[in-house]
Amino acid sequence: MKVMHDKLIKTDLGDYKISVRAGKTIIVFLNGASGFDTFDSFAPVIVKLPEDLGILAIDYLNSGMSSLTKKSYRLEEDITNLVEIIEKQDAQKVIIVAHSMGGILALPIADRINNFAGFIGLEPTTREIMFNPSKEKTYIEQKNKFESMTEEQFMIKMQNQTRKNFSKEQDKLLWQHYYQDDLRHSEVRDTQKQKELMQSVVNYDDIRFRRAAPSVIFTQKYRKAEYGRSEYITDRTKIVCLGDNHYFFWDFPEEIAKEIIRLS
Questions:
Q1: Which backbone phi and psi does 98 adopt, to 5 degrees?
Q2: Cα 240 vs. chain centroid, distance in angstroms?
Q3: pLDDT score recorded for residue 204
Q4: CATH code at 89?
């Protein structure tokens, strides 16, 4: 039985925590902008994958179980480190699974690795939603619905969701690591990091996946048209509508796992 191993990859920017399992085909999991440990967040999907598939779940710096950054840095430097971590796994095929903001990193990463074999996006962030969000009624309603919730209400909603879909042990670890990470953060620093990210994203405006690359995008129904015109579209894109919240992959891990296995 192949087991996962946790490692710390030391760099001049900080120490990246990775959870890894070797394989000729490796599935790279990229988290969103939350403080969740990446392996924890994708655990319901990962446990449904065959053991011969390699796994690489990377925590970003300042997130999950990775260290805080040692110095200010550009997004380009972070991407270079992530590419190096992926390539050191010596996999023959790399499939990237990215949630939310992880999609922004997936594009330049896929552009730089020779063995990129496919992409699965779980509501990956589009440039449209960042810089020119739709004024359609459903988007406004969803935004208002989110903003009407207090932080406490939002956390209770998510905790109910994980309690339902995670094993008891993994649910405990998810929130233990989340609150451990949360203690390190300051609102000022997090706001500055978000600003720097927004400024850096424009440097990758022209990057797209290779036209022949298979791409599967999972999204809530109201965003289907947005993804149909997004930077994640290739000649082999499939769009699947699931759920009614941004963390729908917690509710539908089997559907996600089936597409990963199909692409692998």
A1: -130, 135
A2: 17
A3: 75
A4: 3.40.50.1820
Residues 6+ apart with CB under 8 A from 25: 53, 54, 91, 92, 93, 94, 95, 117, 264
Q: Please tell me the distance from the alpha carbon of residue 41 to that of residue 249, in angstroms, as a whole number.
A: 9
**Can you point out the beta strands (E) in the chain?**
5-10, 15-21, 25-30, 54-58, 93-99, 116-122, 214-219, 236-241
Q: Which structural domain range is residue 232 located in?
A: 5-263
Give per-residue pLDDT as tens, 78-135.
999 999 999 999 999 999 999 999 999 999 999 999 899 999 999 999 999 988 999 9
Number of domains composing the chain: 1
Q: Which tens digits make up the pLDDT trace of 37-94?
A: 999 999 999 999 999 999 999 999 999 999 999 888 888 999 999 999 999 999 999 9
Distances (CA, A) of 263 to 23, 187, 200, 216, 232: 15, 39, 30, 9, 16
d(CA 228, CA 221): 12
pLDDT in tens, 152-186: 999 999 999 999 999 999 999 999 999 999 888 76
